[in-house]
Design brief:
Largest sheet: 8 strands, parallel, barrel
Structural class: alpha/beta
Oligomer: single chain
Strand content: 15-25%
Order of helices and strands: HEHEHEHEHHEHEEHEHEEHH
Number of strands: 10
Length: 279
C-alpha cells in the first residue's frame, strides 16, 4: 500500500484531518500516569477523532526506554489504522542521514518523518528515497511556525529566492516528481504560514504535496489559514493539522476531572474545528 493509500484509508475511517501531537514532556503527563500509560490512553481514546499521531523526538530521546515506547505507540496507532509520524527534523550528510532514516522508518516502523532539508539538500532528502517505494512518506520543512523561524524563511535567500520558496520548488519540481501517485506525492511538506498570501503560494507551488500543518492551538497558528492550504477537488483535502498541548495538556485547566476524558473531549472538539475551517 502506498503512503497516499494509507492517508486516504485513515481519512476514510476517521473522517478527520487532526493529528494529535504526542509531545509527552514531564510537564504534560498527569502525575497518576506513567509516560507509557498516558500515551496508550491518548491513542485508545482519540483514534475516532484523529487521522494521525505525531511524537516530537525531543520528548522521547534520553528517556528510559524512549525508543521502545515510540515503537509501542507506533504499533498501537497502526492497530487502529492511524498514521504515526515522527517529528525528527532529520538533517545530516548522506551516510548519517541514511541511518536516521533507517531508525525512524524501518526500526520504529513509523509511516513518515519530518525532514529539515537545509543545508544538505539532496544528501538529506536522498537518504529517505529507499523507503519511499515501500509505503513510507516524509514531510519536508518549508515554512515553520515560530515568529523567528518565519522571519528566516522569508528573509534568508537561496539562489535569489526566499528560503521557503527555494525549498518548496525543490520539493515540487525535483525531489517528488517520481513519487507522485493519483493526487499526492509521498514527499509532503511542513508548511504553516500565518499570512494567507504565503499559504496560497505554498499550495500553488506544492500542488501534489500533503501539508503537515503544525502550530494550531498553543502556538497560535490561526485555523483560518487552513482554507488556503487545502487542495480542492480531491477526496483527501491535502492537509494534516497537528494539535498537541491544547489536547494532551488541557487537563491542567480542569483539576479534579479525569485527564483522559478531557483529552478525548478536546480531540473531538479540535477535529470539528478543523473540519469546519476547511469547508
Amino acid at each position: 500500500m502506498s503512503f497516499e493509500d494509507l492517508v486516504n484509508e485513515a481519512y476514510r475511517e476517521s473522517k478527520s484531518l487532526l493529528s494529535v501531537g504526542l509531545d509527552l514532556s514531564p510537564l504534560v503527563v498527569p502525575p497518576r500516569y506513567s509516560m507509557e500509560e498516558y500515551m496508550e490512553n491518548i491513542i485508545r481514546t482519540t483514534y475516532k477523532h484523529a487521522l494521525a499521531y505525531k511524537p516530537n523526538l525531543s520528548c522521547w530521546v534520553g528517556k528510559d526506554e524512549g525508543t521502545k515506547l515510540l515503537k509501542k505507540g507506533c504499533k498501537l496507532a497502526h492497530e487502529y489504522g492511524r498514521l504515526f509520524i515522527i517529528d525528527a527534523k532529520l538533517n545530516d550528510v548522506g551516510h548519517t542521514a541514511r541511518e536516521y532514516a533507517r531508525s525512524y522508518l524501518e526500526e520504529m516502523d513509523a509511516d513518515a518523518c519530518t525532514v529539515n532539508p537545509l543545508p544538505f539538500l539532496d544528501d538529506t532528502i536522498g537518504s529517505t528515497f529507499p523507503y519511499l517505494s515501500e509505503g513510507k512518506g516524509i514531510f519536508v520543512l518549508v515554512y515553520t511556525t515560530s515568529p523567528h523561524s518565519q522571519m528566516s524563511w522569508e528573509n534568508f535567500y537561496v539562489n535569489n529566492l526566499p528560503a521557503w520558496k527555494f525549498v518548496a520548488l525543490k520539493v515540487a519540481n525535483d525531489w517528488s516528481q517520481k513519487y507522485v501517485g493519483k493526487d499526492y506525492s509521498c514527499i509532503g511538506i511542513v508548511g504553516a504560514p500565518r499570512r494567507k498570501e504565503i499559504a496560497k503560494k505554498i499550495r500553488e507551488i506544492c500542488d501534489t504535496q500533503i501539508d503537515l500543518v503544525p502550530g494550531l492551538g498553543v502556538q497560535g497558528v490561526p485555523l483560518s489559514i487552513l482554507r488556503y492550504l487545502v487542495k480542492k477537488r480531491t477526496y483527501f483535502p491535502g492537509i494534516i493539522a497537528n494539535v498537541g498541548r491544547s489536547i494532551i495538556k488541557e487537563w491542567k485547566e480542569y483539576p479534579g476531572e479525569d485527564p483522559i476524558k478531557i483529552v478525548e473531549r478536546e480531540a473531538e472538539k479540535w477535529k470539528k474545528k478543523i473540519m469546519k475551517a476547511v469547508r
